[in-house]
Amino acid sequence: MSLVCTSTYNDVDHLFRGANRQLAISLIELVNSFEAYWPMTLRGFYYQAVSHLLVPNNLSEYRRISKILAELRRADRVPWFAMEDKTRTTSDKRGEENVEGYIQRDLDQFLHPKFYQRCYIQNQPVYVELSVEKDALSDHVKDAAWRYCTRVSVTRGQVSATMLNEMAERFDKAIMRGLQPILLHFGDLDPTGVQIPKSIKSGLLEHHGLDVDVRSIALKPEHCRQFSLPQSLDAAKAGDPNYRRWVAEYGNQSPTELDALHPEHLKALVRDALESIYDVGEIDEQQQREEQERELLATMRRKTILFLREAFPDYMREVAL
Q: N vs C: which end of the chain shows fewer Cβ within 10 Å?
């Protein structure tokens, strides 16, 4: 069943007037069209609105989109769960209501074949990691990388010394196992964004003595042309410490944010990059072994649950085989 909201002019007539009224209708349609990628960030929806020619690309329009989407969510014209704010978090509470609830929750996953994930890349001659500049896009990258059992680090701009050290420890262990270390980076095409993978490579070499093959996968100028991506809100400024290097390398290239990419295009770039490195046939063989091992787990789970039902009938009534 679809979770999208439907709307007509009458639905938003009491909320907006004039041009905002039409834009609100268009934004509802836009948000619904991206249901498969929910939740997305405000910035992500803004750039898609620009790409769909709903608004021009400037800061005042970004603020306008923000206000309209907030009002549409308050009025239940757009689902709250269609959007997320990855910069603010809330912790979970602790505690179970009773031991029966704990048993039920724990055994729901115990030996369940659907929770078993075999590492598909354990026999590959390379050790690959991904890094992404934007936390807002990390879920799309992680989704695309999931089948390939590959780690994803979110740098949130320049990588910290702590994160770089953690990367170095993993790459060092991989090198000790005889594997080739590779890092694939996804970030903005702007003065700061293009420096991030270069800084990671130099930092790994200078501070940790590791020569890692660091590859910048996206964004690149050809992606901007291929997908007709809008220019970044935070355009390159002469005061940026990386501005001169940017101009020397990219000339008059318009800066563009990774957020401007359609989520499916971003996922495709991740998959293509990984499949250009990994032996896909080996991954398929590992997946087949996983299915065989899941059958074993299903048998073990069934026998274990039947035994526990007989031994502790008062606590096992709700546990499915």
A: N
What six digits make up the tokens of 313?
A: 């009938």
Closest CA to 133 of 196, 191, 184, 83: 196
294's CB contacts (< 8 A; 6+ apart) are 113, 114, 116
Worst-scoring range by mean pLDDT, 49-53, 89-93, 169-173, 286-290? 89-93
Describe the chain by its helix, strand, coil percentages, rounded to 5: 55, 10, 35
pTM to 2 decimals? 0.85
* HSE toward the beta carbon, residue 133, CA cutoff 13 A: 25
Query: Which residue is it, tokens 């032996």?
Result: 279
pLDDT digits (tens, 9 = 90+) for 227-284: 999 998 877 887 888 899 999 999 989 999 999 999 999 999 999 999 999 999 999 9
CA–CA separation, 120 vs 290, rounded Å? 9
pLDDT of residue 307: 93
> Which amino acid would we find at residue 175?
I
Whether CATH 3.40.50.300 fits 125-278:
no
pLDDT tens by residue, 97-131: 888 888 888 888 899 999 999 999 999 999 999 99
Is residue 162 a contact partner of residue 176, using CB atoms and an 8 Å limit? no
- Chain centroid to Cα 173, Å, comes to 26
Q: Helix, strand, or coil here: 143?
A: helix
Instruction: Return mean pLDDT, the chain.
Output: 92
